[in-house]
Amino acid sequence: MESVKIENLTFKYSGAEKEALSDISLCIDKGEFVTLCGKSGCGKTTLLRLLKPALSPFGEKSGNVLFEGTAVNELDEKEQASKIGFVLQNPDSQIVTDKVWHELAFGLESLGFETSEIRIKVAEMSSYFGIESWFHKNVSELSGGQKQMLNLASVMVMQPELLILDEPLSQLDPIAAQEFIKTLEKINRELGTTIILSEHRLEDAFAVSDKIVVMDKGKIIAEGKPGQMGHLLKDNDMFLSLPAPTRIYQETSGGETSPVTVREGKKWLESFVQEHRVEDIPCTTGKEDKKEVAAELKEVYFRYEKNTPDVIKNLSVKIHKGEFFAILGGNGSGKSTAVSIMSGINVPYSGKVKINGVSIKKVENLYTGVLGVLPQNPQTLFVKKTVYLDLSEFGNEEQIQSVAKLCNITEVLNSHPFDLSGGEMQRVALAKILLKNPQIIIMDEPTKGMDAHFKKAFARIITSLKKEGVTIVMVSHDIEFCAENADRCALFFDGNLVSVKTPREFFADKNFYTTSSGRMTRGILKNGILAKDVIDVCKKAIKGEEK
Known about the structure:
547 residues, six-stranded mixed beta sheet, alpha/beta, 22% strand, single chain
């Protein structure tokens, strides 16, 4: 039986010139796990929101959206709330109460359940999701991963038939993201809940999906099993987003069905290496240049309230001029707090913060040409009705058009910033920061919501800024991006840095904080941190045999 049936769905936002969705038709069976992917702004979020009328955007719509044979707009509010669950991208935007236990009970209270029944359902769901140890905590005390798990549990306590998730992994560290995906797989397998997941981080999602649906410019361009996507998307921009085992296989051997998981990729690579003479990848560690120091934290301690534990503990680090310095680590480890201190937003109770060799307290016009800060939530930078007006705060017409082209936002200049996809918001926020020509740019999770295609462009932007002497400090969960583009990577744990190395050295000895390519090649090829390097040595082996 079909859970969701979409027939010739077309949608255009109010006042927009172009259609956000164009003639979409799709069937999803009951109990299927479907991953929806595509470049930023392709229409994924719009499509998902049209599946739940309470969240549907305003605009012109034609076509049909059916849930279990009934048009979704004919479902009453109680049916919508209980049968169709929706988990948003930003964990904080969905939480409505101050306590964990109350958040779990809130939806049931709204549906009019008896107190005794609410207690039973909440108790069962807390056990299922492993929430007992933080059941009585304030929501504000939770990590990002815990908040997202709480959102999922708060939706599942109402026992929905359909669970929709819009990029729920975007703000989670690699380990938390894997745990979240495992939980979704468990829900799908053990409860039979139909799941539709929109995601840019496809490494883990592909492994648990029954079907992949790929969108581009408001249309579905590919649909099939995970292993078929490498062959179907070989000549499409979305190929860059596919799991590393798929890309490596397609670029070397090729075939209609590709390995998707690290385990499958490892099995194929072992046989490939046995058949071909594949050389190890050279290790280039790089040298530590004694460059001018752009930003420095020395023996810094920080806590948010007087009688609470330290969040930052004796942190010392030097970041050089023109360097791309990436900070990785788990949710709640102190990464964002550290960069907030570096950017002058928070003040440590002990220690020194220097910018260009001068105490940050003495730097005049800190945010005008010295520091540019891109926060984790880009919406905090938007104050005008259109993207163009927002950019006009810091640039003239020529500058706006130039930065819009650079950040690929020309087509959304007349849109309201809050109507954009997550990736588009990130690009607009970046454009606004670049217009101020800062010497040091501090970014908190800038690649979340970005598709792989624009990440390539983003990497080029960073490279051009570095050539101009601009320093980039970036907090990120995007291991693949940092491995390929950073000059140095740092691992944050328990309020301090426990490792600072070049990417090849940093990722070589990690089990979870490493790339899929690194895990796939471990024990088979040395230094296989980047997929492109593995592809190069495999191709070289094949070419050598052809001569």
